[in-house]
Every structure is written in structure tokens, then in C-alpha cells.
From TrEMBL:
Domain of life: Bacteria
Any matching Pfam family: YqiJ_N
Name of the protein described by the UniProt record: Membrane protein YqiJ
Keyword field: Membrane, Transmembrane, Transmembrane helix
Span of domain Inner membrane protein YqiJ N-terminal: 8-115
Amino acid sequence: MILFADYNTPYLFAISFVLLIGLLEILALICGHMLSGALDAHLDHYDSITTGHISQALHYLNIGRLPALVVLCLLAGFFGLIGILLQHACIMVWQSPLSNLFVVPVSLLFTIIAVHYTGK
């Protein structure tokens, strides 16, 4: 399996996003700021959403318990890791990668479940 092949592009983008957020957080800490605190300051009115499907989805992803930047990094990291592992498994079994039209939704589903249980 070639890591930088075309079928791994969305997953590598997600992993590079996590690395970029980590680099920006380090630079912000050196300058005396907190990037995660700045993002959470804009989400102060999150608790005003008390009913509906959006509220249930946000509670399922533990947005109120964890800082929003941590949840965002967990989502991107798990998406990248699960997507690359699924493509690798498909290559090992069928000797060809699956279409990303199939693998991306499956990766998103497993990512949401993984973030829910990791954030507890």
C-alpha cells in the first residue's frame, strides 16, 4: 500500500489538519494565548440549544464536556486513521482500493462512534 496514493487523499488531509492545529496551538502557547480557549469563547451560547436533533448530535459528540478544538481534532484524526485502515484492509483482501464514495461515509460513521466513546 502506498500511503500517498490518490485514494488516501481525504484521509491524509484530515491527518495534516490535526498536525496543523497542533502546530498552531504550540505557536499560540508560545505567544501566551490559547487557541482552544479562543474557540470555546465563541461557543458560550451552546447551552441555549436545548431541544432538537442538533442538540442531540452535539451532546453525542461530547461538545459540552470537551473543548471544541479537542473534539475537532478527534474527529479529523479518527477519520484519517479509520479511512486509511479501511483502504488498507480492502487492498489486502481484494488487491484494489474501494471507491471513496463508499469508504468516506463508512469512515464518518465509525469516526462518530469512536469520538463518542473516546470523549467520555
